[in-house]
UniProtKB/TrEMBL annotation:
<dbReference type="InterPro" id="IPR050268">
    <property type="entry name" value="NADH-dep_flavin_reductase"/>
</dbReference>
<dbReference type="GO" id="GO:0010181">
    <property type="term" value="F:FMN binding"/>
</dbReference>
<comment type="similarity">
    <text>Belongs to the non-flavoprotein flavin reductase family.</text>
</comment>
<dbReference type="InterPro" id="IPR012349">
    <property type="entry name" value="Split_barrel_FMN-bd"/>
</dbReference>
<dbReference type="GO" id="GO:0042602">
    <property type="term" value="F:riboflavin reductase (NADPH) activity"/>
</dbReference>
<dbReference type="InterPro" id="IPR002563">
    <property type="entry name" value="Flavin_Rdtase-like_dom"/>
</dbReference>
<dbReference type="Pfam" id="PF01613">
    <property type="entry name" value="Flavin_Reduct"/>
</dbReference>
<keyword id="KW-0503">Monooxygenase</keyword>
<keyword id="KW-0560">Oxidoreductase</keyword>
<feature type="region of interest" description="Disordered">
    <location>
        <begin position="1"/>
        <end position="25"/>
    </location>
</feature>
<dbReference type="GO" id="GO:0004497">
    <property type="term" value="F:monooxygenase activity"/>
</dbReference>
<protein>
    <submittedName>
        <fullName>Nitrilotriacetate monooxygenase subunit B</fullName>
    </submittedName>
</protein>
<feature type="domain" description="Flavin reductase like">
    <location>
        <begin position="35"/>
        <end position="180"/>
    </location>
</feature>
Length: 188
């Protein structure tokens, strides 16, 4: 190969990398890593199995967002690959708990299998939804709609009650790691 061919090949590679990658289902790690550059808050979504009649369930979620203030709507996305997917998509009600900066242990607890509620301080609301104590914010919801979202189901909830601690700071997730939020210094 001539030197000019080497230079042209290097320029082609540089140009292609400047355009970015095309999502490839066979290589999801590249897209997952790129999405991981966006920092998100961390929540635990709770409900009960069997459409609200069974055992309490919970899952750590970072796909939480506000949809509307009037009416009060939020959304989160349940992975179809989750063993709890069917329970969440059938649940008539659920709660989203926004975690504090020091609750990474609680977040990890709801990422693994086993009885996540064993020894945990929680109460049940009138809709039969487990409510975790001492989180930064909590949104109690009834399921408003479900939408197909590829390998996830997008669940929209109508907020029926909420709580918020004005003094806490959120737990953040980015690049596969938990961390905290450091606010900008306010000008004097």
């Amino acid at each position: 190969m001539r030197e000019s061919d080497d230079i042209e090949a290097a320029m082609d590679r540089a140009e292609a990398s400047g355009r970015g990658h095309v999502p490839d289902p066979a290589e999801p790690r590249l897209l997952r890593d790129a999405l991981g550059r966006f920092a998100t808050g961390v929540t635990v979504v709770t409900a009960c199995e069997c459409g609200g009649e069974g055992n309490p369930i919970g899952i750590t979620v970072n796909s939480f967002a506000s949809v509307s203030l009037s009416p009060a709507l939020i959304l989160w996305s349940a992975a179809r690959s989750s063993m709890r997917h069917a329970h969440y998509t059938e649940a008539p009600a659920f709660a989203v708990h926004v975690l504090r900066h020091d609750q990474s242990g609680l977040a990890r607890r709801f990422t693994r299998s086993g009885d996540r509620f064993d020894g945990l301080d929680y109460t049940m609301n009138e809709d039969g939804v487990p409510l975790l104590a001492d989180t930064l914010a909590r949104f109690e919801c009834v399921t408003e709609a479900r939408h197909d979202g590829g390998d996830h189901t997008i669940i929209i909830g109508r907020v029926t009650r909420f709580t918020a601690d004005p003094d806490g700071t959120p737990l953040i997730f980015s690049g596969g790691q938990f961390g905290g939020f450091v606010p900008d210094a306010q000008p004097s």
